[in-house]
Automatic annotation (TrEMBL):
The keyword ATP-binding does not apply. Transmembrane segments: none annotated. The lineage of its organism: Bacteria, Pseudomonadati, Pseudomonadota, Gammaproteobacteria, Vibrionales. It comes from the Bacteria. This is Ferric uptake regulation protein. Binds 1 Mn(2+) or Fe(2+) ion per subunit.
Length: 151
């Protein structure tokens, strides 16, 4: 796993500023879980995050990680990968409310987040034809990434 030294510190500063503006607390543990999630293109399960967190905070327990994940999801800083019950960073860190399309490599577990307004418009249009209002959607596409295809 790539560790936090490859982390985009500007991104961490951005979420600190967003939390301050919203009046919510970015605790050390929440920040650390976010940094772990951002340290790799792979999605992490809660228990993988706990294992990594315990390297620096041996007393960390599952509720610690789950509370941090709930906070980060609520703030829009991360996404839950439904099909693998894991978590990745949000590419816009909630700069605006958006729906994402995730490309998930079944070999290396890397996840790429795409934002495609035309796809969302098509989904909304199709739903409207059936008098259906979309409140949330998850689009996950599984396959093999370019790097793994070359192996």
């Amino acid at each position: 796993m790539v560790m936090v030294n490859s982390l985009d510190h500007q991104l961490v500063k951005q979420i600190e500023e967003i939390c301050a503006a919203r009046g919510v607390r970015l605790t050390t543990q929440r920040k650390r879980v976010f940094e772990l999630i951002c340290s790799s293109p792979k999605a992490f399960s809660a228990y993988e995050l706990l294992e990594e967190l315990q390297k620096v905070e041996p007393q960390a327990k599952p509720p610690t990680v789950y509370r941090a994940l709930d906070f980060l999801l609520e703030q829009g800083f991360i996404h839950r990968v439904e099909s693998t019950n894991s978590y990745i960073q949000c590419c816009s860190c909630n700069a605006h409310k958006h729906y994402s399309h995730l490309l998930i490599c079944d070999k290396c577990s890397n996840v790429i987040e795409l934002q495609d307004d035309s796809l969302v418009a098509l989904l909304v249009d199709n739903a409207a034809k059936h008098d259906f209002t979309i409140t949330n959607h998850v689009i996950e596409t599984h396959g093999v990434c370019k790097a793994c295809s070359a192996d």
